Amino acid sequence: GATIGILGGGQLGRMLATAAAELGLSVHIYCPDTDPPAAAVAAGTTIAPYEDAEALARFAAAVDVVTYEFENVPVSAVEGLGDRVRPGPRALEVAQDRLTEKAFLAECGLPVAPHRGVSSPEEIAGALTDLGGVGILKTRRMGYDGKGQVRLVPGVDVARAFASIGEVPAIVEALVPFDAETSTVLARGADGRTAAYTAPANEHSEGILRRSTVPGPLTAGLEAEAQRLTADVAEALGYVGVLAIEWFVTGDPANPLVANEMAPRVHNTGHWTQDAAVTSQFENHIRAIAGWPLGSTARTADAVMLNLIGHDADDWQRHLDTAGAKLHLYGKRDTRPGRKMGHVNVLSRGVDFRAGG
Ligand code: ATP
Ligand code: MG
Ligand code: MG
């Protein structure tokens, strides 16, 4: 069978490699970090910096198609691999910069929060005034799990806020008052066909996803709208693979869905699909990049996905005998606060997926 190359060796790479193995495909991981979680389930692993052009070229020669599981892989590394990378470098480039990303999503017809690009305390103060006195300051690049973000309230010390994110180019976003958060995880095949999963209710604390529940908060009409808009983004990028859009659900009939951000990869809010969908997001990503037809995204059960973050995972054994619980651990040795160590999918009522829904 074919060999799939994955840039990045974290838990997403690990779960992609497992899905590939189940389809009879092998995976070769390329990543700069020692002891990557994905290495344990991959047929091969190269540990080298993304800037090492020779190592990258050897990796590329050993695989049939390349994908990435981490959106901060340098675009230059991906461009050097030519057209064997799915999704392509444009998706990565857009998703790496919050300002570019918002402009692109808006161009595709997705409502986004009012925002301003800023690179000084004076600009932050001006943006905050424009946006009504409250907002969130975020680094344009490299943020994830709420890192590089700070809330701005009236009277805030803007110089201190700027210092706290490292005085790098940033964005100030208006605070979106939301009833719920959700996400559309959508697969697009090499033939341009798309299939999307039920959008869950996503709960965060301290900027990190804690829990995703399906069915989620969207009416059938909004679900269809979110899927249509996500497909538009995928189409505009000529995207092949799994793409996620995170949404705020506002409760405002005039503007019910506001896009927060995109992820050009499989997504934490799609982990429930491993145990409660006919085809998981990981399998569908592999199918798409391998040029295979997509599998059914139909949901087979109601489910709650609980992230095991930091010391949440210390007593992982307790999930082994919980009715309906399926435990997934990432094999990470060091427990650190805020580090994603695993997740549990807790299934409840079964759904007759043949009837739809
Ligand atoms: P990840 O990529 O891991 O999802 P991130 O670091 O890119 O995280 P964001 O998605 O930008 O972070 O923000 C994390 C969370 O903070 C959001 O899911 C939401 O709960 C809250 N948040 C972010 N931006 C806004 C906003 N403009 N208005 C209201 N809440 C927000
Ligand atoms: Mg993000
Ligand atoms: Mg996010």
From TrEMBL:
Superkingdom in the source lineage: Bacteria
Catalytic activity from the UniProt record: 5-amino-1-(5-phospho-beta-D-ribosyl)imidazole + hydrogencarbonate + ATP = 5-carboxyamino-1-(5-phospho-D-ribosyl)imidazole + ADP + phosphate + 2 H(+)
Domain (ATP-grasp): residue spans on this chain: 102-290
EC number(s) given by UniProt: 6.3.4.18
Positions of ATP binding: 98, 138, 143-149, 173-176, 181, 204, 260-261
Biological pathway: Purine metabolism; IMP biosynthesis via de novo pathway; 5-amino-1-(5-phospho-D-ribosyl)imidazole-4-carboxylate from 5-amino-1-(5-phospho-D-ribosyl)imidazole (N5-CAIR route): step 1/2
Keyword ATP-binding tagged: yes
GO biological process per UniProt: 'de novo' IMP biosynthetic process
A GO CC annotation given for this chain: cytosol
InterPro entries the record matches: ATP-grasp (IPR011761), ATP-grasp_carboxylate-amine (IPR003135), ATP_grasp_subdomain_1 (IPR013815), PreATP-grasp_dom_sf (IPR016185), PurK (IPR005875), PurK_C (IPR040686), PurT/PurK_preATP-grasp (IPR054350), Rudment_hybrid_motif (IPR011054)
Alphabetized GO MF terms: 5-(carboxyamino)imidazole ribonucleotide synthase activity; ATP binding; metal ion binding; phosphoribosylaminoimidazole carboxylase activity
Pfam family, one: ATP-grasp
Record keywords, A-Z: ATP-binding, Ligase, Nucleotide-binding, Purine biosynthesis
ATP-binding recorded as keyword: yes
SUBUNIT field: Homodimer.
Family label: Belongs to the PurK/PurT family.
Role, per record: Catalyzes the ATP-dependent conversion of 5-aminoimidazole ribonucleotide (AIR) and HCO(3)- to N5-carboxyaminoimidazole ribonucleotide (N5-CAIR).
NCBIfam families, A to Z: PRK06019.1-2 (NF004676), PRK06019.1-5 (NF004679), purK (TIGR01161)
Name listed for the protein in its UniProt record: N5-carboxyaminoimidazole ribonucleotide synthase
Species of provenance: Acuticoccus sediminis
Name of the encoding gene: purK
